Task: structure prediction
Amino acid sequence: MSPVATGKVPKGGPLDDVQNLYKMSGIVQDLADAVDKLVPISEARAKLPKLCQEVKDSGHRLLLTRWGKPVAALVPFDDLEQFQESLRLEQSSEAELETEAQ
Result:
């Protein structure tokens, strides 16, 4: 079972690094809640079709790591669409605020 699934994510680990990046960008406040499983990229390479099916069927979000550092995420397509829509809304809101300020 992954550290995320057990709720025992070590401090100073790769999730802390990514969580700090996401907090700075304002995208995700609690990465541990957003990721269901850590998968080393070497394992993902060997099991990609199976992992893709798992993500599609279960809705799980996987964080791919290299040498313990996050490098990519495998998420359901619906999540990606929602994320893109959120970004569009955020960008349009920022543009409106800039326009009003001028």
Observations:
- Residues 23 and 66 are 21 Å apart (CA to CA).
